[in-house]
């Protein structure tokens, strides 16, 4: 049996405290969600946030392979007709085929927050859905606070969702907006509603009781066939149901048909990583299914032992969701990873090569000093190749100096024996310009290389402004995208390192091998 | 009805990858757990880890008010009598009154891992429990991999727990050791076992399916009256059931008697914080019940609503578990958010005050230029107060300049008319030192202010190194923690802004109002 997935990372997820996505990242997340195979991507609330309207505009430049883009909005305001409601107009203006419309179903909210009569609220629900249906949209109706509403006044809560059905809603979603529910109640209430409606019933769960994933599962077991959630469980307060857990639970443990098939599951780990990065959050290594330690095995447990009877120690095969088994005291996982990368680039190194061991030791040592190559394998590849004597940097930064104050930022660099100087809008920009002024004369292909992301965090112990910082840079030259890392107590020094690695990496790629690495993201 | 709690933070929690507790911290956590009112504290595995044996020795210097200390161990090894088993001897040596004994109940593990006959395993379970009972201990028997075992061979799994009961176990705990289960299966299987046994049944859940909390609740609903878990859900791989969620769910939502009463719940937030600190992990601000943002409210409309009817927007009263309501300043916010902050600081501004509207416009304008006040309300408060003419910066940075290269970073600043100069390990450190060299002479209280976090991202359109960057800083002076933001194309300029806001904020707080803001995080 099939269960539809609506992802609301870009709407409910973006409402999480401390999370804000750039327009660029929103587009990239949407494309990744489409590639993952979700059925609906809720892209934002155009009637509330002009930035969300921009997103829908930007998305017109892309065609999605499977997913449908959905815009979120509220039922019309009291005393305003649907056709005059700005919020509904914004949904139509966004140009989507699917609307997610939220309405009140808890009598307390109708009376105390909306301050309208129960009948007026039903009219608001009916009119709004009818209006969008008349304009040819598919309508998913989210009944806000449904479960708490049902607990207080089941008749009224049911009248609301039946009104939505009568008005033509294609799907009726029961929301636990406050995250108040426990699994047994969700099962019971959802089951009652499924019996009363003919349209597809969905569930939308928040995690305030720590049960969002379980509640979603129980909703499906009670007959729901549409689930809403977000990547990594982003969302208001404690978040929404985490789709990276809901989807594998439904597919691998309950045999439901979700996404386009089992192969899509392998994309979960990467999309989880990317969403954390875009949200400015550190990945949770302990996250079920996709966390780095989700399949870790403690010291003493033999590799062979686990490989023989994996089912004795692992609830699922980690490869299914793009994750890997990790042995806490073993570097085996590390060495096979880097070998895969090197092979991809055309370097055929034997696993027994002593240079490989040396390179891995160097990488390990750097990791202890604050480097992280998870998100910046390009730097790890360069380090390994240098250590193995297989590559010498084509671009060598011999000296740099920056002078910076409130008004001006100037940098001097010496690259491959030549001096360059530039003024920039900031110290890193000045260095970048000075460096490229020399480098692009030597290697014109660098003119296509753009810096597409730049992030700084303190990876280790926080010692105020004395802390070691880690700079992550992402580059794109129109064919390949790659990421590098630099670490130092000086943010400029770390930036210079990541920058020169970024340029050296693409020079190595383009000169060593020009066919195999197109469209590969490192 | 009462449900017993066994906390295994110090045993299962300590097995989490990346977590290690010092002996001192273990003792402090044990004392806090006793104060919280848990029934059992599983302190370690003395037969496996000499450090755990030390802990039990150290605990002899303390008397606990309510909790009983328990030592963990395995059933005797095959071919060794109970009295000669070193692991059982270590439990006795630890001097505890309670043993938690783990034994196999999944036939796969008996055959492939233990490599003994099914009957031999039953003997190992029986002998080990009998031996400890004969020495006067209370025995809690943990049936490892019980649920997966029951799924494969229910008769054998049941024989194991019945053997434990016959041997005199006081409590039989069903463990989902791989975290494989979903809530409905836990309910079904636990219910069957409860019917078959006379002793108290307990549950021990892992989070690999993201359902540890829900599974624990379902176990209790099926008749279990003993729950095992850890503070913050620490534990192997993805962790154990998080007691900071299990306990309030059982007490506040299901009416079970847990701990010594409702007042104990208020200690949850503090113990959660302390365990994170001792484990060397960052607190999860999105954690249900105890997270900093668990009761945050973001949208402006919402804030009005929350003040009107809290039960419409909060699943429980945050005060019950020692947490507080929080209003987040953001682009979605109306004026109500900032008013709450200002009121907290003792500024009573009317909602109609025209200066307030001007301040909000300024904040909104800055948000469009890349600022984000979600995580840095201290900056928003300063901006609002300045805009309303209620505060002039006590610290004014009039000029700064940095000279930086690979080897040296020097900064000159002019603050309140005075020059300062310093060398640092990086440009921001140099500025920080130069600024404080002047500022701390003027305001000695700034000596206590530490920078506790520093992050940089590109908030808007990525234009390579020309991009606007956003710097977030977190400060702590031992009484208060606060966060500020700076935005510029220059990472140094943005850092100077966040830094001077950070110092100005605490000067404003300490000079304007010294009582209301202690222990408040902004």
Automatic annotation (TrEMBL), chains A, B:
EC no.?
2.3.3.21
The record ties this protein, via InterPro entries, to: 2-isopropylmalate_synth_dimer (IPR013709), AIPM/Hcit_synth_CS (IPR002034), Aldolase_TIM (IPR013785), Citramal_synthase (IPR005675), LeuA/HCS_post-cat (IPR054691), LeuA_allosteric_dom_sf (IPR036230), PYR_CT (IPR000891)
Record flagged with keyword Transferase: yes
Q: Does the keyword Transferase apply?
A: yes
Entry GO MF terms? (R)-citramalate synthase activity; 2-isopropylmalate synthase activity
Which is a GO BP term held by this UniProt record? Answer: L-leucine biosynthetic process
Which keywords annotate this record? Amino-acid biosynthesis, Branched-chain amino acid biosynthesis, Isoleucine biosynthesis, Transferase
Under Pfam families, the record lists: HCS_D2, HMGL-like, LeuA_dimer
Which biological pathway? Amino-acid biosynthesis; L-isoleucine biosynthesis; 2-oxobutanoate from pyruvate: step 1/3
Group of enzyme by EC:
transferase
Q: Which intervals hold domain Pyruvate carboxyltransferase?
A: 3-268
Classification via CDD domains? DRE_TIM_LeuA3
Q: What is the similarity comment for this entry?
A: Belongs to the alpha-IPM synthase/homocitrate synthase family.
Q: What is the protein's given name? A: Citramalate synthase
- The organism's taxonomic lineage, starting at the top: Archaea, Thermoproteota, Thermoprotei, Thermoproteales, Thermoproteaceae
């Amino acid at each position: 049996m099939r269960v539809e997935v609506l992802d609301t990372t870009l709407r409910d997820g973006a409402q999480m405290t401390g999370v804000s996505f750039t327009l660029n990242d929103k587009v990239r997340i949407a494309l990744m969600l489409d590639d993952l195979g979700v059925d609906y991507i809720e892209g934002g609330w155009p009637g509330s946030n002009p930035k969300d309207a921009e997103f829908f505009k930007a998305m017109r430049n892309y065609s999605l392979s499977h997913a449908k883009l959905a815009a979120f909005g509220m039922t019309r305001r009291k005393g305003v007709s649907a056709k005059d409601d700005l919020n509904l107009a914004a949904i139509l203006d966004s140009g989507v085929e699917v609307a997610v419309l939220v309405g009140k179903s808890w009598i307390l909210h109708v009376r105390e927050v909306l301050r309208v009569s129960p009948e007026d609220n039903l009219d608001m629900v009916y009119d709004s859905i009818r209006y969008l249906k008349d304009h040819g949209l598919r309508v998913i109706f989210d009944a806000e606070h449904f479960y708490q509403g049902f607990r207080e006044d089941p008749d009224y809560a049911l009248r609301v969702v039946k009104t939505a059905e009568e008005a033509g809603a294609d799907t009726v979603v029961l929301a636990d907006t406050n995250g108040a529910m426990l699994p047994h109640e969700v099962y019971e209430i959802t089951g009652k509603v499924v019996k009363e409606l003919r349209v597809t019933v969905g569930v939308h769960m928040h995690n305030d009781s720590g049960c969002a994933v379980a509640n979603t599962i129980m909703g499906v077991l009670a007959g729901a066939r549409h689930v809403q959630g977000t990547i990594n469980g982003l969302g208001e307060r404690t978040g929404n149901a985490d789709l990276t857990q809901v989807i594998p639970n439904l597919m691998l443990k309950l045999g439901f048909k979700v996404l386009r098939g089992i192969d899509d599951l392998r994309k979960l780990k990467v999309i989880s990583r990317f969403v954390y990065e875009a949200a400015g959050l550190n990945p949770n290594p302990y996250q079920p299914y996709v966390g780095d330690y989700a399949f870790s095995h403690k010291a003493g447990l033999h590799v062979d032992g686990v490989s023989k009877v994996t089912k004795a120690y692992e609830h699922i095969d980690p490869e299914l969701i793009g994750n890997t088994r990790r042995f806490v005291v073993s570097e085996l996982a590390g060495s096979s990873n880097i070998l895969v990368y090197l092979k991809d680039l055309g370097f055929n190194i034997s696993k027994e090569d002593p240079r490989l061991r040396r390179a891995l030791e160097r990488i390990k040592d750097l990791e202890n000093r604050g480097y992280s190559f998870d998100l910046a394998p390009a730097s790890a590849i360069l380090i390994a190749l240098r250590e193995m004597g297989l590559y010498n940097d084509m671009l060598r930064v011999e000296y740099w100096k920056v002078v910076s104050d409130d008004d001006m930022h100037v940098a001097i660099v010496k690259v491959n024996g030549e001096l360059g100087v530039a003024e920039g809008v900031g110290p890193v920009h000045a260095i970048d310009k000075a460096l490229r002024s020399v480098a692009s004369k030597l290697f014109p292909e660098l003119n296509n290389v753009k810096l597409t992301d730049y992030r700084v965090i303190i990876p280790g112990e926080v010692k105020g402004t004395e802390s070691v910082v880690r700079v992550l840079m992402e580059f794109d030259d129109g064919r390949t995208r790659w990421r590098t890392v630099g670490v130092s107590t000086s943010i400029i020094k770390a930036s210079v390192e990541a920058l020169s690695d970024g340029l050296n990496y693409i020079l190595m790629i383009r000169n060593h091998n020009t066919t195999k690495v197109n469209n590969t993201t490192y």
